[in-house]
Design brief:
The protein is an alpha/beta fold and 418 residues long. The protein is 31% helix and 26% strand. Bound molecules: uridine-diphosphate-N-acetylglucosamine (UD1) and phosphoenolpyruvate (PEP). Its EC number is 2.5.1.7.
Length: 418
């Protein structure tokens, strides 16, 4: 089992290159199952979830090559449509195999997914939408079994905004017979990137980035190329780390437009934030960090995947900051761990009331999910002593070489085999 040892070493300074977005690369890799010719995807981050996805694609019979940040997939000869529990259990996004396999091959059997244990995370919206498109679906022994000779277009109004739910139904609709309309669709940049990928391979999707998607079914997708958009959550995580250490960093290969609300909150917290087309600079030198209230909502609101990092920001900042989580019912697992480091946080329902905690002290803490682990590393950057973060396999699901990137910014962080 690996651990991180993190010791405070003053302000983060320098430049960090942002990787491609995990939550865009994963759906796009599953979308490659729809194409009858080879597809090449670049700016793919090197992450555990990506490795798992590539294994799944190979299991289905796709030919896959992966060099640096470029993945090529040839899904012309898929031989089976079965996604087993052993691979699917670690990764939420594996549910995204369902739509593409079902719509192209008329059948799919996919284990119910794992991923971050931040709530119940049902997949009823995925199943209901596919049923509306004519699929016969049963859920037995932890597996979703779906069949349909050819999916039919439908008018789907989603009960809740769901990112992967929208993505699954959009992918299914691409090869369905007729024009599908998805209302109350997710507007996240990663949904837009998936639509761009699909359209560049022959799909006919309009409305991506709004809450209504219109998808004109086509008989087949062809090959092509795509570059994955930058990871806005990785970017935001480094910016918060710079803010709490009173640092001055530049994130390169970033997408400032996808992070507007987070950048606004960082400015409200007292940071000087400047942006160019593909870079963001955060300068906190000699400035006072103030607490900020945040409430998680679907895009373009404040992202739930930045909530844990802002919880730490509020503990370090002057004042009292309220962090309200409205998307997931169990996304405060970082709070008890931060409390062990001296953080003054009180949970009131779905709000964490974060008080300025004059001195955080190092402790052995346990990563419970991806962004919770990132928040513990950030806390370690300002705590007195050496923080030991356990179970860092969670962080490896979503951050590419986080310790190398932090080290280059001057942080003292080391990966050890415990
Ligand atoms: C791989 C990926 O892209 N993961 C992201 C995706 O997760 P994911 O797509 O799983 O999250 P959703 O947007 O689906 O979840 C939003 C809410 O809807 C609920 N829900 C969802 C589907 C469903 O069928 N029924 C249902 O009730 C969920 O339990 C949750 O309360 O969006 C989340 C919200 O921005 C992010 O935190 C995750 O990082
Ligand atoms: C919750 C997350 O991931 P997943 O949906 O893959 O569990 C995340 O990226 O913060």
């Amino acid at each position: 089992m690996q651990q991180f040892l993190v010791t405070a070493n003053g302000p983060l300074q320098g430049e960090v290159v942002i990787s491609g977005a995990k939550n865009a690369a994963l759906p796009i890799l599953f979308a490659s199952l729809l194409a009858e010719q080879p597809t090449t995807i670049s700016n793919v981050p090197r992450l555990k979830d990506i490795e798992t996805t590539l294994k799944l694609l190979q299991l289905f019979g796709a030919k896959v090559s992966h060099e640096d940040d470029v993945v090529s997939v040839d899904a012309s000869a898929i031989s089976n449509q079965f996604a087993p529990y052993e691979l699917v259990k670690t990764m939420r996004a594996s549910i995204l195999a369902l739509g593409p396999l079902l719509t192209r091959f008329g059948q799919a059997e996919v284990s119910l997914p794992g991923g971050c244990a931040i709530g119940a995370r049902p997949v009823n919206l995925h199943i209901d939408g596919l049923r509306k498109m004519g699929a016969e679906i049963t859920v037995e022994n932890g597996y979703i079994k779906a069949r349909a000779s050819r999916l039919k277009a439908a008018h789907i109004v989603m009960d809740m905004v769901s990112v992967t739910g929208t993505e699954n139904l959009m992918m299914a609709a691409v090869l369905a017979d007729g024009k599908t309309i998805i209302e109350n669709a997710a507007r996240e940049p990663e949904v837009v990137d998936l639509a761009v990928y699909l359209n560049s391979h022959g799909a006919k999707i309009s409305g991506a980035g709004t809450d209504t998607l219109v998808i004109e079914g086509v008989p087949a997708l062809h090959g092509g190329q795509h570059k994955v958009l930058p990871d806005r959550i990785e970017t935001g995580t480094f910016l918060v780390a710079a803010a709490v250490t009173k640092g001055d960093i530049i994130c390169r290969n970033a997408a400032p437009a996808d992070l507007e609300v987070v950048l606004e909150k960082l400015r409200e917290a007292g940071a000087e934030v400047t942006t160019g087309e593909d870079w963001i600079r955060l300068n906190m030198t000699g400035r006072k960090l103030n607490s900020v209230d945040v409430k998680t909502v679907p895009h373009p609101g404040f992202p739930t995947d930045m909530q844990a990092q802002f919880t730490v920001l509020n503990v370090v900042a002057e004042g009292v900051g309220m962090v309200t989580e409205t998307i997931f019912e169990n996304r405060f697992m970082h709070v008890p761990e931060l409390q062990r480091m001296g953080a003054r946080i009180r949970l009131e329902g779905n709000t964490a009331v974060c008080q300025h905690s004059p001195s955080l002290t190092a402790a052995q803490v346990m990563a419970t999910d991806l962004r919770a682990s990132a928040s513990l590393v950030i806390a370690g950057l300002v705590a007195q002593g050496t923080t030991v973060v356990d179970r860092i396999y969670h962080i490896d699901r979503g951050y590419e070489r986080i310790e190398d990137k932090l080290q280059r910014l001057g942080a003292h962080i080391e990966r050890i085999n415990a």
